[in-house]
Design goal:
Layout: H1 2-14, H2 17-34, H3 37-42, H4 48-54, H5 63-79, H6 82-89, H7 91-96, H8 102-136, H9 142-172, H10 176-187
Helix pairs in contact: 1-8, 2-5, 2-8, 5-9, 8-9, 9-10
Length: 188
């Protein structure tokens, strides 16, 4: 399973979809620059670094709302054709002819996609925290860091759910379009 995991991870970083993940990091940079930190300080907020993610002062919607809306889309983009593509190319039968369990293929694809997603989300968070630190001139307190780790954990559980659902529909349906359609219907 380890070889499959590393191959899938290299595929995720080598595909055009990685541009989507880099775009998320860019959005995080813009988000961190436009959030009105001085207004958060004036309101007397206790956890300014966490509030940068959850409030919409200076931006149309909060980063939390952005993640909750586009999280399923990102999960679909990373996982909707993970097994359909291999099946369509005819390499799944060759892969499973090796002494590899089917579960190992699914798990390697899921874990590689989760790691890719976690690196992208961590990058976005680090960029936003870095821009906020630059604008404030102070680092986050240990309690704020703990809350940010909790926010990251919950965000990754949410995104991992949508990613797992997307990969599961890729297993259940032979056609990529059917897989995307079914996953999209489940989201609404």
């Amino acid at each position: 399973m380890k070889a499959l995991f590393w191959k899938e991870l290299a595929d995720h970083f080598g595909r055009r979809r990685f541009v989507l993940l880099l775009g998320l990091v860019g959005i995080g940079l813009l988000w961190g620059s436009f959030v009105d930190v001085s207004r958060l300080i004036d309101e007397g907020r206790a956890f300014i670094f966490l509030d940068v993610f959850s409030t919409s002062t200076g931006v149309p919607i909060s980063l939390l709302s952005f993640i909750s809306f586009f999280g399923p889309v990102i999960g679909f983009a990373l996982g909707f054709d993970s097994l359909n593509g291999v099946r369509t190319q005819g390499t799944l039968s060759r892969l499973l002819a090796q002494p590899i369990y089917r579960d190992s293929v699914f798990n390697a694809k899921l874990l590689a996609a989760i790691l890719t997603l976690s690196l992208a989300v961590a990058s976005v968070m680090m960029v936003v925290i870095g821009v906020t630190m630059f604008r404030l001139g102070i680092p986050p307190t240990p309690e704020e860091i703990l809350r940010l780790v909790g926010f990251y954990s919950v965000t990754m559980m949410y995104l991992s759910f949508w990613l797992a659902l997307s990969i599961t529909t890729s297993v259940l349906f032979r056609n990529t379009v059917t897989s995307v359609s079914y996953t999209h219907l489940r989201a609404h």
